[in-house]
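Both lines are retained for reference:
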Amino acid sequence: MLRRRLMLSAAVVAAGVGLVPGLAHAAGPAAPAAPAVAAPQPGPAKATASRVQTFTSPADRTVRTPLPGAGKGAAARAQSAADADLAIVMDAEAPTAHSIKLRTHVMGEPAALDMTIAWGDGTTDQVAVTGSGSGSDVRYTEHKYAKVGTYDVTVTVKDAAHGVQAVNHLEFVTSGSEFTPHAPTRLLDTRAGLGAAQAKVAGRGSVALKVAGAAQVPAGVRAVVLNVTATNATGAGHIVAQPRKDGFEEGSNLNYAAGQTVSNQVIVPVGADGSVYLINGGWGSVDLIADVTGYFTASTAGGYTTLDPFRAVDTREGTGTAKGQVPGYGTFGVDIAGRGGVPKGATAVALNLTVTNPRAAGHLTAYPGGQAAPTTSSVNFTAGQTVANSVIVPIGPDGKITIRNGSWDRADVVADVVGYYSTDSRSALVSIGGPYRIMDTRKDSWGRKAGPIPARTHLPVRLDADTTDSKINAWVLNTTVTNTTGEGFLSVAADPNTWPDYLKGTAVTPQRPVSSSLNWTAGATVSNLVQTSGGKGGMVDFWNQGWQDIDLVFDLLGWYQTV
């Protein structure tokens, strides 16, 4: 039988912050201009992570047959080759979204052989195997597929001297998956018994949410985009979304406080049973809600393109819609396709959606233009709160999305576009098995002592290897800010430098971003998903745009690649 396993390894080296003058205008409290201060420390942080998916076809799957036209005695020679243990072992791994690294081990080879590797996409490689005298030949061959998918890789070894050939097959699936948007649909509500029992999730308990086959999500789904909401919590805690019930990880996707209703978007792999597991990391019970907005499969659908964040909507300024607060239960359309680098024909848009200055509690819902409002939510808020949430929204046939104010009273809305999905892109998601903790500034890490990010500074972090040509198109991170003593917001953006620039002291000061990734108030712990480029050096900057120090925690969820 074919065997398959997942391995995840990660190493973190952290050190350094830099201070940059300037002020971004983003949802949140206004502040005077920042002073020009610089106090760089040893260097940026580094985090490298690898996800290696392996496939195996053992020697006993080898089929030996006489070569066509081998003449008399070929069958006997084939049996002789079998007796000599002529066999092929195939091992493969998926080092990148579209590539395969194949290890072939030809055993019992008596002489020079011809080997053909058929990759399953219509291409082949020819390899001459010379008799080594050791009785075996081991070699590695790499190949890149133009599209993600499942491929039947066939290795054929021909032994002309004995008139026999040996063949083995391996089913290989690329590690990359492409995105299909889904109309926002509620899959889980423990308050109503939808998708699970009608009961709160107990402290340290979990709920299994069947997503494969639910609401037209296909059976072969590999990862799903959910907006997860925690409500009616009896104490503080956090939620972890992962493809298995056991193996509780250090990372988190959503943090909540007693009595709070809070949402966060998650991109989570689907387990072998077609489910995702939402684990309550708190000691008290909590109700959970989950709305699906898209899913990823190992088939051609839509790839991701990251953009420099641009403000598509700001009702305070009249950007993208009429100036003035959105009335209670009011809606407005937003032109997305054809703006800010989003092409016409894009299937979905990645947004950071923020509500500010709301006069009463409620929620926002973002959904495709031209459709009726769904019974789902994108951002939940209380009166006077500024809160952001990352959302992936299908774009309507008219090139628009619609935003609805689910409160009975007025609120301001801000939306920053960070990327889009389209059928023209082959940038595929490589997701890991749940949130993987990369940095926690409250703890010592390699090269960096524990300590908060000072006010009005940025922390550069190296996520990729030591490179000046990163092959990662975008990183998927879950960011959390905690130990806050005032109001502020976090911006996350690609660093224009490379690690060698920092080592040589030639790094330029990055431009302060003008968009926000998450907003906080004093004493709050706030999380939000971020999809961001790492630039040519695979480096990401985390900007504390507040006027007090903060602690930052972030977890890796995956990345996008075209290679």
